[in-house]
Write a structure and sequence with these properties.
mainly beta; Immunoglobulin-like; 2 domains; seven-stranded antiparallel beta sheet; about 5% helix
């Protein structure tokens, strides 16, 4: 029989912007469960983490923005596991205390693509996941999940996972993205980055989110403007060490959020 364990515990530390007392019970902020999903013909498995947030509370995307808490996952204790890949649905942009954050309100269904080492043998997933949840305070929340595979979820649960998978940004090819070029200029403590993206409008006011392949490089909030068929994003990059660093342009990832759709763009070329 499928066994699933999911417990919540908050740490005592709050982010500097927290000015009020921490809620006594994490269930007041977020409730969580595992959706077992299904096993594919190739032996891989699709499950999901389902978070339900209290009114006014939000959680974060993989790149949370200036004031967010980045999610982290520790898979120690798992057996017969080659890897787990989160498949992030399209996020929203929020502003709090003058800072931009990126994430989800009300709920998040986060699909998890699980790859066993040996598809002919059962697998056990044991993961410690840390997420951040915010309202007027930001609190790190620790989730401990366990799942024995193969597992089979109910039809409604599977439908929730499929809807989250369908809510991903579309590819650059699907969005008819043309040339993507970038310019780097040194600044006092890092690099100024300008990215020009030739693409049709994604609808309404467009926001460009930029990530690097190096998790130690901090990306400032991006300013996005459009002129005709070109969307331009500007930002600053700083290494957490404060030292000079090299930037791999092919490792840059741009996510364009528009009113009609979102677009996932990988890499840029030097202008």
């Amino acid at each position: 029989m499928t066994r699933m364990i999911l417990s919540l515990a908050t740490t005592l530390a709050l982010l500097p912007l927290a000015a009020q007392a921490q809620p006594d019970n994490p269930a007041e902020m977020v409730q969580a469960r595992v959706l077992p999903g299904w096993t594919a013909a190739d032996g891989s498995h699709m499950a999901a983490l389902h978070l339900t947030l209290a009114p006014g509370w939000k959680t974060y995307w993989r790149a949370p923005g200036d004031a967010g808490i980045p999610p982290a996952m520790d898979l120690a204790g798992s057996h017969n596991l080659a890897g787990v890949t989160p498949v992030w649905p399209t996020p929203e942009v929020f502003f709090q205390n003058g800072m931009q954050t990126v994430g989800y309100a009300e709920q998040l269904v986060l699909p998890l693509r699980i790859e066993p080492q040996n598809t002919a043998q059962p697998a056990h997933i044991a993961a410690q996941i840390q997420i951040g949840v915010c309202n007027t305070i930001c609190v790190p929340v620790d989730l401990d999940i366990a799942l024995d595979l193969p597992a089979q979820g109910s039809d409604p649960q599977q439908a929730m996972i499929r809807a989250a998978l369908a809510d991903q940004p579309i590819t650059a090819d699907s969005a008819r993205v043309g040339a993507v070029d970038c310019t780097l200029n040194p600044i006092k403590d890092g690099l100024a980055l300008t990215v020009n993206i030739a693409m049709p409008s994604a609808g309404g006011t467009e926001t460009v989110l930029i990530e690097t392949a190096d998790p130690l490089v901090w990306v400032a909030e991006t300013a996005s403007t459009r002129q005709g068929g070109t969307l331009t994003a500007t930002t600053e990059l700083v290494h957490v060490s404060g030292q000079a660093f090299a930037l791999d342009r092919s490792g840059l990832r741009m996510t364009v959020l528009g009113a009609e759709h979102a677009v996932d763009i990988q890499g840029c070329t030097a202008k």
